[in-house]
């Protein structure tokens, strides 16, 4: 699916070595695109890597399963780590530098700093995963400091994460352009995610109801329904037809603030989180289909 390039990829695990290499790149005035990941790479990551390779001289991908963003009852130990195939995936797409530090490198015993984007981190996913976005913001801030990219690439699937990172870069005056790219879906509509492998066969079959519910919302809105309560109620009705689907939330929010809206307008985000057994799936659509984070956060 993706174009193939032949060049040598540097695989780096030490922060010191990474910083030396980045210094050389900066000396040559080359632009850097950065794709942070936790590995278990799929075509969603592929689209971010491809965009970075196209738009920058050098592409850095990080693979680090960040313990700070997992709650005590979450899947840190179980999280897939297919490092060999991730390496091949990155090579094939033409990544220049693959950074995969150990947890000890990233968080030595003396590590005491955290980055918190207040307000935006406490709602939606943050309500169900306390501390998650503090972990995300902290690791991304640290990676940004080490890599100093010109552009960093995030998927719309983790919309709240992208909004928080965008807020963080603006608040801390980090000279980095955040690019948010569309969700890549399986042929039946399920949003690609490294966690989809946890689904049983029947859960996987039933999970398509999420995309169906988002599609229904889009249809209702396109035919003039702008009442958020009514749209959400129809989505809930549809998802509830699947016994094993347990809804954590379905909401329509204003994308600067993530505050719920009652009247749906273009640019609003319709997001949902639904559990299938112990696997939580999230998905979203932007009303009017325009993801314009950078413009939104000029203020
Ligand atoms: O989206 C992810 O995979 C992670 O949250 C990120 C951005 C790599 C930080 O660990």
What structural keywords apply?
about 300 residues; alpha/beta; Rossmann fold; Pantoate--beta-alanine Ligase, Chain: A,domain 2; 2 domains; six-stranded parallel sheet; four-stranded antiparallel sheet; 11 helices; about 35% helix; about 20% strand; globular; binds pantoate
The radius of gyration computed from the alpha-carbon positions, rounded to a whole number of angstroms, is 19 Å
CATH class descriptor name of the largest domain: Alpha Beta
Task: Calculate the mean pLDDT score and round it.
Answer: 95
Beta-strand residue percentage:
15-25%
**Anisotropy-based shape:** globular
Structural class: alpha/beta
Provide the number of structural domains.
2
Low-pLDDT segments: none
Q: What portion of residues is helical? A: 25-40%
Number of strand elements: 10
Q: At the third CATH level, what is the topology name of the largest domain? A: Rossmann fold
Question: What's the order of the H and E elements?
Answer: EHEHEHEHHHEHEHHHEEEEH
Number of helices: 11
Tell me which ligands are bound. pantoate
CATH architecture of the largest domain: 3-Layer(aba) Sandwich
> Quick one: biggest sheet?
6 strands, parallel
Strand order of the largest sheet: 1-4-3-2-5-6
Distance from N terminus to C terminus (CA atoms, Å) equals 38 Å
State the CATH superfamily name of the largest domain. Answer: HUPs
